[in-house]
Structure formats: C-alpha cells, structure tokens
C-alpha cells in the first residue's frame, strides 16, 4: 500500500453467510436485487474476521481488508485502537436476517473463553470442527438494532414471574424443582430447575412438549405478554417437537423490538433471535455455547457454567440524539453503533475521527466527500474509513449505520 491509499475511503465487498434460519429476501432486497436468493441468506459480514474478511479494491486488484490493515495498522486503525487491540479491527459488523429462530445460546467472558480455547486446543480439536465450543480466546458482547419488528428472547425473567406463569399453566408436576424455587426463589434453585429441565433426555420429550402445547391451547393468555409467550411456544414446538428448548419462553424475557430499538447482550446472558432483521455489532469472536433449538452441537454442562441466572440480562438501549446521529452507548470497549439520518438540507459532518470506521447505508443514496475526493453510496453498500482520513462529509437523503471504536 502507498501513502495515497491510506487517505482513501473504500467500498467493501462483503461475504454473505447462508444458514438455514436466514431470509431469502431481506439481504438481496437491501442490496437492490429484485429476485429472492436461492438459499437462505442469514448474515452479511463487514469487518476482518478470519472466517470472512471484507475485501476492497486497491492498486487495481481486490485485497482482503484484514491484510491491508495488517500492513499499516497505525494509519488504518489509529494509534489508540492499534495499540489496545493488537493491530486488529476489534469488531464484526453484520446485517442479520432471521426468518426462523436461532439456537438458544450464550457467549463466554474473556477469562472463560481463554480457558475453554486453551483446553480444546490441548485436546487437538480442529478449529473448524463442529465439536468446538471455543473457536478463539475472545469474548463476544453484542448489540442488535432492529431494522424491522424483531422478536427476541433474552435473559431470565424475574423468578416470581416464572413461578406464577408455570403455576397458571398447571405444570408444577411436569417441571421438577418449581416448588423448591417458589419456596426459595434463589439463582441457585433457578439454575437447578433450568438445568434439570433442559437436560431431560429420557425419550419422552415429545410428550412433555405436547403437554405444554395443550396447556397454552386450553388456557387463555391473560395479557399481551402471555400472548407473545404462548405464540412462540406454539411456533417453536412446530419446528422442534422433541426439544426441551420449547419451554424457554416460560423462563426468558420475550421481547418485540420496534424499528430503531436496540438490545445489548453481555457475556453469560442466555438469548436467541426469533424473527426479524437488524444490524448487529459485536466483538470479533465466534464463541457460541448452545442449549437447544438447534441441530448443531449442544453442550449443556458447559453452557450452564457460563450462564448468569439473575434477571439483569435484558438491556434495552435508548439512543442519545446528537443532531442527526442517534448513538447507542454500551459498556463494550470494542464498538459503538450509531444511526445517521440525513437529508439534502442537513449533511453529516465528521472531523477529528478517533478510529477506523465502517458505515452501512440501509436506505436512500448520496455521497461521501473527503480531501477533494467523492464516492457515491446507495442502500446496501458499505464503506471502510481509515483513521488517516481525519474528516469527511456525507450528503444526500439516507439512513446509515456507523460503527467506531469508542475512545473512552
């Protein structure tokens, strides 16, 4: 790379991940394609992850963004980001399109990830093996911001609500430990009850799921919360009739995010995305421990080790408005997401940028200008802005999402 290239803004060519739960229409339509894809397109990745780095055109040829950053990390990332994150872009930015539910899952913290990664390396489990829980030694805090109505389960409900709903459904004799939990509503008893239920592999799961489905059909939902929970139990049972994860809406918060609302998920928080499309930003990790609602590997004992059994996992993030930028603040040190809404009369002006940035256009079209140069951008396109750019102006009529590394 030469000096001129470090002062350019680059359009990204990003990988699309095809998973069974993905949508055949959302990502193609975002990119301006009229026809649906042949296979479900679940995620579009923007960043430098080793399993799917974005690519850019430079010096007349296409190069991996990961390799380009490695060549000149100070100019591409900035001194603070390069020093703090070992010359690597610390986040992975995604468009996520869920037409059906993902697995019930959680992510480890840094200490748990380092320990698990080391142990699986010592066992010589290949990094690409389906038997892997830990594919790296990093944690994975993540933020999802809804582009459409977005249903999600996240974090355990208050214990009193769990007990009360199970009793209303008359399931005390089918969920071992509920009476003890009612008598002593502790995190330890919630862990035991949840672990016993999810590890129930005595070949009568279909019968137990059927009993649950019959109860929600016989008893009327008492409020909107019951209605949402019952609806998802029925849908999950239709997809996974043998999976005890169908009971999870009784334990986890079931939430419907509206467009523009965001949810922050920390290490150890049990969650799953049920249906909807959004932009997701996370630390650069691929560590996932699954507990159900999947055909992939489930490692319940390892999952239980990292889970938090409190009721503090549900963190809805309200943006802070700064003129035409809506900033979603979290405790994550790797990323900060914001939404930018501009029109022809009100451009977005940014000077003294503090780190590399990735910007995604989700609606409209316009241009970005810097140092006498102009690059056109339209919905579905994304940009990498090196730290060395310093300042830029975005003009047009657009909705964009911007990711930076926070300075504080």
Protein model, in words:
- There is one protein chain.
- Among the domains are: 158-250, Orthogonal Bundle (Phosphomannose Isomerase, domain 2), CATH 1.10.441; 327-404, Jelly Rolls (Sandwich).
- It is built from twelve helices and 22 strands.
- It has helices spanning 3-6, 26-30, 65-71, 73-77, 79-84, 110-122, 159-168, 178-183, 187-198, 205-218, 224-239, 300-306, and strands spanning 10-11, 15-17, 43-47, 55-58, 61-64, 91-98, 104-106, 142-146, 150-156, 252-257, 262-265, 271-283, 289-292, 315-317, 320-322, 325-328, 336-342, 348-350, 357-370, 373-378, 382-385, 392-404.
- The strands form four sheets. Strands 1, 15, 16, 17, 18, 19, 20, 21 and 22 form a nine-stranded antiparallel beta sheet that branches. Strands 2, 3, 6, 8, 9, 10, 11, 12 and 14 form a nine-stranded antiparallel beta sheet that branches. Strands 4-5 form a two-stranded antiparallel sheet.
- A hairpin with a 2-residue loop joins strand 19 and strand 20.
- The radius of gyration is 23 Å and the shape is globular.
Name some characteristics of this structure.
single chain, 408 residues, alpha+beta, Phosphomannose Isomerase, domain 2, Jelly Rolls, 9-stranded antiparallel sheet, 26% helix, globular
Topology of this structure?
Elements: H1 3-6, E1 10-11, E2 15-17, H2 26-30, E3 43-47, E4 55-58, E5 61-64, H3 65-71, H4 73-77, H5 79-84, E6 91-98, E7 104-106, H6 110-122, E8 142-146, E9 150-156, H7 159-168, H8 178-183, H9 187-198, H10 205-218, H11 224-239, E10 252-257, E11 262-265, E12 271-283, E13 289-292, H12 300-306, E14 315-317, E15 320-322, E16 325-328, E17 336-342, E18 348-350, E19 357-370, E20 373-378, E21 382-385, E22 392-404
Antiparallel strand pairs: 1-21, 2-3, 3-6, 4-5, 6-12, 7-13, 8-11, 8-12, 9-10, 9-12, 11-14, 15-16, 16-17, 17-22, 18-22, 19-20, 19-21, 19-22
Helix pairs in contact: 10-11
């Amino acid at each position: 790379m030469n000096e001129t290239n470090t002062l350019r803004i680059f359009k990204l060519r990003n990988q699309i991940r095809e998973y069974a739960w993905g949508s055949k229409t959302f990502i193609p339509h975002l990119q301006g394609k009229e026809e649906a894809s042949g296979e479900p397109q679940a995620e579009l990745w923007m960043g430098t992850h080793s399993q799917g780095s974005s690519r850019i055109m430079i010096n007349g040829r296409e190069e991996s963004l990961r390799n380009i950053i490695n060549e000149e990390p100070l100019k591409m990332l900035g001194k603070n980001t390069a020093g703090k994150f070992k010359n690597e872009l610390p986040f992975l930015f995604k468009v996520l399109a869920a037409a059906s539910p993902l697995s019930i899952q959680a992510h480890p913290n840094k200490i748990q990830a380092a320990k698990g990664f080391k142990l699986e390396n010592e066992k010589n489990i290949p990094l690409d093996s389906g038997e892997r829980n830990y594919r790296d030694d990093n944690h994975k805090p993540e933020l999802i911001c809804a582009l459409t109505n977005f249903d999600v389960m996240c974090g355990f409900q208050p214990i009193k609500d769990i007990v009360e709903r199970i009793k209303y459904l008359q399931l005390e004799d089918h969920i071992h430990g509920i009476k003890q939990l009612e008598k002593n509503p502790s995190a330890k008893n919630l862990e035991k009850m949840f672990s016993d239920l999810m590890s129930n592999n005595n070949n009568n799961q279909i019968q137990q799921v059927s009993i649950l489905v019959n109860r929600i059909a016989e008893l009327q939902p008492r409020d909107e919360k019951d209605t949402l929970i019952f609806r998802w139990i029925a849908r999950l049972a239709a997809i996974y009739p043998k999976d005890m994860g169908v009971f999870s809406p009784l334990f986890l918060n079931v939430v419907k995010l509206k467009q523009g609302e965001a949810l922050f998920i920390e290490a150890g928080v049990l969650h799953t995305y049920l249906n909807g499309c959004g932009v997701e930003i996370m630390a650069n990790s691929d560590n996932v421990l699954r507990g159900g609602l999947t055909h992939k590997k489930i490692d319940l004992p390892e999952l239980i080790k990292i889970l938090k059994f409190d009721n503090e996992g549900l963190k809805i993030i309200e943006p802070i408005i700064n003129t035409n930028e809506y900033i979603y603040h979290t405790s994550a040190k790797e990323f900060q997401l914001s939404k930018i809404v501009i029109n022809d009369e009100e451009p977005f002006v940014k000077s003294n940028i503090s780190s590399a940035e990735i910007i995604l256009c989700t609606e409209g079209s316009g241009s970005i200008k810097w140092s006498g140069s102009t690059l056109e951008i339209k919905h579905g396109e994304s940009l990498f802005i090196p730290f060395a750019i310093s300042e830029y102006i975005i003009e047009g009529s657009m909705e964009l999402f911007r990711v930076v590394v926070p300075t504080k």
